[in-house]
Design goal:
about 350 residues, alpha/beta, Rossmann fold, Adenine-n6-DNA-methyltransferase TaqI, Chain A, domain 2, 13 helices, elongated
Length: about 350
Amino acid sequence: MDACLSSRIVDRYVGVELDQRLAAKCQSAPATVLHLANVLDPVALQSVLGSQRFSCVVGNPPFGVSEVSLAAQARLKALYPYVTQVKSWARLDLYFLLESLSRLRRPGEAAFIVAAPIVQDPALAAFRQTLINSASEIECHELPPLTFDKWAEVQSFLLVARFGKAHGATVTLGRLSGDDFKLTASRRVGREGAIHRMDLAHHEFQDFSQGLARRNGFTTLEALGAQIVRGSRSRHEFEALGVDHFHTSDFPLSTGGVAFNSKSPAGFQTAEAGNILLPRVGTRCIDRAAIVAKGRRAITEAVYRVVVPPSVRASVFDWMSAEEGKTWRRAAAHGSCAKHLTVAALMKMPVPS
């Protein structure tokens, strides 16, 4: 409310807040109304807002999925027929966005802070397509990862959509950096590219990856016939079993070799001499790598074992340890909180042949 009132001329501000403690922080101001209601309760929301429409809708909705009522499920389905309902659970930021857009006048403007799935998840491509088809201009800016560091390190985005006479929005992707949210990178992307992904980092990664693939003497892990296997148990399960194991926290800070004894029991995914180890998950360690110099040890489900032909093992590991190889993995990892790499992504990793 403070941001809206201080940043532009506002004739009337109407807010909806469920948390009474947060509502109490809002000092009354001229032409402002604050309703204590639950946006996820269609009946309650209708009772406080009626048929009102607004020229601008803004918000920072809750992140994640939550169980919602039958009425909310029906409302979400009416607003977004493409929704894939998993029992009674719903994406909260998607619900808030759709509910707000349904009350937006045309011409009008919407601005929301959303989590990574809204702009990245293939399951929400239909939402991005609908938004592009109906809007005239869209901006989606990546926020600094520690924007909400008091609560969690999550990847979030500022999504702005303007609706005018024209349809088929132009889409601009950007990155905001620092405490002052300075725009440090920006590019316009085509319709199909924006439907696929609305995060700038993805499109930058595609350019970077394709540039590497075009280098002489480069191929992919898949073309080399690499085998990539993740571990079979969690760290806590191995600890409970009393089994020695290799976890993401065991990767050396400086990339290099690790040595194990050869007493790892049967029945677990293990790493042995000549195997390359990569973290599967972990924002702060995703770019690390290690090669097993000797011995054998069980690996946790947070670690990948990579096996490549002996003739290219050294060159592949050296590449993974180099700055460009680290940069590739950091860019290929995705997720709202802890970043993770998929086998499919790693198989496409450009490597020297």
